Amino acid sequence: YVDKYVEKSHVLGLADIFEVPHSAIQIGRLLGEGAFGRVHEATAINLRRMRGTTIVAVKQLKPNPKADEVAEFLSEIEMLKGVGTHHNVVCFLGCCTIKPPYLMIMEYVGQGNLQTYLRSLRKEAGKLKLRNANYTSCRPISANSTSSPKVSSVNYIELKASNQTLDVQSTGDSNSISTNGCGSSQPSRREFAETTYSIVEEEVSFEHVLDNKELHNFALQIANGMRFLEEQEITHRDLAARNVLIDSDKTLKISDFGLSRHGIYTNTKTRKLPLRWLSIEAIRDNVYSSKSDVWAYGVVLWEIGTLGASPYPTISNGELIPFLLAGNRLERPEICTPQVYTIMLQCWLEDPEERPTFDALYKVLRPKTAYVD
Ligand code: ACK
């Protein structure tokens, strides 16, 4: 596969443009491990259009990857070569694909991911001031609680292409659980009652508040990055706050294209899936499109409004599809205006065609005072 890939890239002339020798990359500290690989900070010398030394992020597969993981990683790189640049999308800078270890070289985005940031805001809410009322209403947020609400850390599940049985069992990996038809890793209802209670406790006291203009701006920036991908008919398939990175000037960058595909894509393999961000047709029929990304965007809006809560905390994986098909949706975050909640509900319409495009979402969210795109 790899030989064919390299051959194809050379035929297209793409390998020459983006290919970097391993000697030009010095791998630094580990930034983190995702479900599909790991990312290090690194220095790169003389990248394309970037003479001298540049701090970059380098993604590579975990040790001893399976053949299909290698193939997927290389096709991810292949796809990124054609994406172009946008300030709300992590920029692809180069790659090492002639021989292993295969490396994907990306723009370094230094302030961590949006989910962590939102959760830190929740903790810090006692020190912040609510300055504007665009995204949220003036709703009390935690002040004197020391414990943050308990949240489910399960983001991905393994789902067989034809498998609709979503009962799960924990694999011990906090980010992944595999389907085997028995049990659930979700906490009991009693635990949820306690969780809900602790959230209410946390919101009782109101000393300081949030900058919701910033939250609104986050929503807008993500819509802007996603409409850029939508325009190129790229389906992200794993849009979630944990996959949006923050730059030092608070620019958001959509990252982790590990699952991305061109156009409408039907999943045929067993793979880990971000169940709670998936649309009904993505879970049930394995069909992904920009409109399933729009559904995920609605969940991201909800993550912003809840300052990083985990979706559907009281619903087990197996219960999710019946829950959604019965017309239920995530509840309005308390700090979120009815207008923004209406946008979320539009993102979660059962018929994908009825959901808005990212372009429409961007235009709705864009402040009326903006004169230029
Ligand atoms: O949440 P983080 O701090 O941001 O930890 C994860 C980790 O690598 C695994 O995905 C971080 N990461 C991913 N891409 C980049 C990037 N382009 N720049 C900086 N950090 C990154 C991500």
TrEMBL record:
Chain spans, region Disordered: 168-188
Domain (Protein kinase): residue spans on this chain = 25-372
Q: Which residues bind ATP?
A: 59
Give the Polar residues compositional bias ranges.
168-187
Enumerate the subcellular locations listed in this protein's record, separating them with semicolons: Membrane
Q: Coiled-coil region(s) at which residues?
A: none
What this protein is called in its record is Fibroblast growth factor receptor 3 isoform X1
Q: Which residues of the full protein are shown?
A: 412 to 784 of 802
